[in-house]
Amino acid sequence: MDDLSPTDLKTILHSKRANLFYLEYCRVMQKDGRVLYLTEAKNENQYFNVPIANTTVLLLGNGTSITQAAMRMLAQAGVLVGFCGGGATPLYMGCEIEWFTPQSEYRPTEYLQGWMTFWFDDNKRLAAAKQFQQARIDYLQRVWQKDRDLKQEGFNVTDSDIANALKVFDERTSSANKPSDLLLTEAQLTKALYKYAAKNTQLDNFTRQHQSTGSNNIGKANDFLNHGNYLAYGLAACTLWVLGIPHGFAVMHGKTRRGALVFDIADLIKDALVLPWSFICAKENATEQEFRQQVLQAFTDHKSLDFMFEQVKRIALQDLTIDQIALIENGQASNAK
Hints:
By secondary structure, the protein is α/β, with parallel strands linked by helices. The chain is about 55% helix and about 10% strand. The protein contains eleven helices and eight strands. The protein has helices at about 70-75, 110-120, 120-145, 150, 160-175, 180-200, 215-245, 260-285, 290-300, 305-315, 320-335, and strands at about 20-25, 25-30, 35-40, 45-50, 55-60, 65, 80-85, 100. Strands 1-5-7-8 form a four-stranded mixed β-sheet, sandwiched between helices. The chain is globular and about 60 Å long.
């Protein structure tokens, strides 16, 4: 183990990794060169392997502990570790996930440098925020057109209610003069999507509550929305860490909000996947684990992490020439070899 270098376990690109884990009531440890988690059963303890080389994020919930040796291996594999409340959401809604990011001095620098070329200019930062919002809608349209399961549940992007909501969103986004205008437009669209999803799943009288509201279907929908959003935050945090862009350089959620860029990036996929599956799983009275499996499978099927990487890189490198981008990509290919 002591002979391993920090890059020995980074054989799979983060955008291609398949696993995001949420663990609770267990002990995470290193044993025989592997990262395991230990659960206490009635008659015996059980060990389960965590495939760290193919994992992006590890969320640790209630009743968990982790050893220093396990953290060392996770860092060597480039896995982000986050502490959170039960069900992958905070115990108190004012508390955010705290991320432990692997310490590496060899992450790329060009994306942060590209980000800084526009970030201090209010107009350019607003333009970047608008690009993210357009990408968010393009992704929703693509996913809802392609996903047969969502179509069967009535989530159809050609529906008049959705078409009208997206048209209004596009018009208001184009005319927005400041980030607060975009946030208001985003809130109005999300409210319309909640109404549409509640209608499709017969969850009448749904209202968005960020704190748990009970075990009925409306309460479950709210809990699932919280849970799914934090899974999306994990992917967003992973994307930014790999590309070397700090969380504070947000384009929409404000300069002073902690981790704001994580929320900007997570918004790219939340409406398309987390929102509809939260309502569908609540209608079907699914368990928390069943919902989590469904959302993570949807992330994989629709290449959510790839999409996040593509959009962040596109914004970061937008002011560079084609030749400069080619040099960057060639350098990355050489480093991967």
